[in-house]
Amino acid sequence: MEEFYASRLDLDKPNPSRIYDCALGGYHNFAADRAALEQAMQVNPHTVAICRANRDFLRRVVEFLVAQGIDQFLDIGSGIPTVANVHEVAHRTNPEARVVYVDIDPVAITHSQEILKDIPQVTAILGDAHQPAYILSHPKVQALLDFNRPIALLMVTVLHYILHTPQAEDAVRTFCAPLVSGSFLVISHGTNEQALPDVVARLEKLSDSTSNPLRNRSRAEITRFFDGLELLDPGLVFIPQWRPDPRLSPNATPYLFEREPERSQVLAGVARIP
Ligand SMILES: C[S@@+](CC[C@H](N)C(=O)[O-])C[C@H]1O[C@@H](n2cnc3c(N)ncnc32)[C@H](O)[C@@H]1O
Q1: Is the CB of 129 under 6 A from ligand 1?
Q2: pLDDT tens-digit profile of 11-33?
Q3: Which of 46, 181, 219, 240 is 20 to 30 A (C-alpha) from 24?
Q4: CB distance 104 to ligand 1 below 6 Å
């Protein structure tokens, strides 16, 4: 399986994890990724701000979950370890928190493994969100996470890479199935709500030239991922509106989306598994 993913490594083709790394100011990206980000900025000049706002949502949500007593995280589509990784945020409050990072990009996982080699309570594995059963049964996942206790499943800007909506719904259901009551599901997802149709179409077309094309979804489609779960306040909202806090962080975008949060074009919600 890991050889299969490694064979997908093509540094001349832009890749979402490395484009995102570039937008966050990281160094693990190549010329093709920087060119793709430049093109995306031409279509939507807020692209970098959107990525940073999404990363800041991730920080806030991990802080919230740790405050709820969560000390286990399964982070699907974790990306390249740049600023404020999940384990760094969690360990500020609970150094014992366990985190499994999963990504389809071998570059992201190689860098993650290098960074994590001396941190036994955190690991990173190659995996495809289309194949939840493979990920859930992976020996490293089984060894590190205790499925008899609550776990936070993070699907932060990853479900839009599962293009077929029933398959995305099925993936969420399969990932949630073994989680005990008191676990949490976190989703942020690109949306076409209140976006200019032309901009959405051009950005999606641009994503077709990357290793992982994406499709935005409507609020109704994203809401359905939470079916049967207890969606917490403030519900499904644009990322800057999810429990904002006034503290500045390297990824915070305090002014840009203050008056027009819909410009972030990403909806987010957190639900409790009953
Ligand atoms: C925009 S980044 C998000 C990183 C991180 N979750 C965050 O929000 O800061 C999306 C990540 O999803 C990964 N990805 C895309 N398709 C995937 C799939 N089918 N399975 C697992 N990861 C995937 C990409 O490689 C990339 O690292």
Answers
A1: yes
A2: 788 999 999 999 999 888 999 99
A3: 219
A4: yes
CA 236 to chain centre: 16
Quote the crossing angle between the two packed helices 47-67 and 31-43, to the nearest 10°. 100
Query: What is the residue range of 188's domain?
Result: 2-272
> Residue 80: which CATH number?
3.40.50.150
Model confidence over 40-63: pLDDT tens digits? 999 988 999 999 999 999 999 999
- C-alpha span between 124 and 130 (Å, rounded): 17
The CA 76 to ligand 1 mean position distance, Å, reads 7
The CA distance from 231 to 218, in Å, is 17
Which atom of ligand 1 is nearest to 130's Cα? 19
CA distance 264 to 139: 37
3-state secondary structure 220-263: HHHHHCCCCCEECCCCCEEHHHCCCCCCCCCCCCCCCCCCCHHH
How far is the C-alpha of 242 from the C-alpha of 32, rounded, in Å? 33
Pocket test residue of 17, 21, 170 for ligand 1, highest count of atoms within 8 A of CB = 17
Task: Please work out whether the CB of residue 206 comes within 6 Å of at least one atom of ligand 1.
Answer: no
The tally of domains found in the chain comes to 1
pTM passes above 0.90? yes
